[in-house]
Amino acid sequence: MRLFYWQSKQHINGLYKSGTFGSKPYFEATKMQVNHMDILVVEDNVHCIQAIGGIIARLGYNVENADTCKEALEKVRQERFDLILLDIFLPDGKGHQLIPELKELWPEVGIVTMTGHNSRELEMEVRKQGIIYYMIKPFQTEDLKSLLEHLSQKHSERIESETQFQFRK
User: Taking CA 117 as the corner, what is the angle to CA 71 and CA 89, rounded to the nearest 5 degrees?
Assistant: First the structure.
């Protein structure tokens, strides 16, 4: 289920008609779309999904959600994501135990884990699995925004590098 993507797409479609995106000029709003990523949020708390999904959509990224380990695996088998925000404690298992399977399906996927129940042992166990970042909930909107902007920049640089390499062949 796509959360917020439809609403964002409607706003973007309205942008082309009116020349503005809310109070932002056209060129600033379209800039958000240049560095887009497809992001899967794996979280069982509806309020967290809405909050995180809303932030992601407002920043111009495509966002989908899954609320169980099983649903996350199904989505990753069907679709490629650039980034997965993965809650560690889910109703049908521990999210961090999914990381090897997710990496097997899409080795280049970036994974950021999230938890509201942190311990030093858990953090060490999760970090060994090659995640990008370990977030402790609740986190500030600005922290998520900064992280996504940084990862989006890295993603864009990688895509640009791959594109230049293909043209050289």
Answer: 15
Residue 161, token pair as written in the block? 């590098």
Cα–Cα–Cα angle for 5, 3, 67, rounded to 5 degrees: 145
pLDDT in tens, 34-68: 447 999 999 999 999 999 999 999 999 999 999 99
Q: Provide the pairing of β-strand 93-94 with 89-90.
A: antiparallel
For 84, the token pair is: 């997965």
10 Å Cβ neighbour count for 74? 12
pLDDT one-digit tens code per residue, 95-117: 999 999 999 999 999 999 999 99
* Coil vs helix vs strand at 144: helix
Radius of gyration of the chain (CA): 17
Q: Can you tell me which residue has the tokens 């111009």?
A: 60
DSSP code string of 12-47: HHHHHHHSEETTEEHHHHHHHHHT--EEEEE-S-HH
The whole-model pTM stands at 0.76
- Strands of 29-142, DSSP E: 38-42, 62-66, 83-87, 89-90, 93-94, 110-115, 133-136
In the chain, count of helices (H) and strands (E)? 7, 9
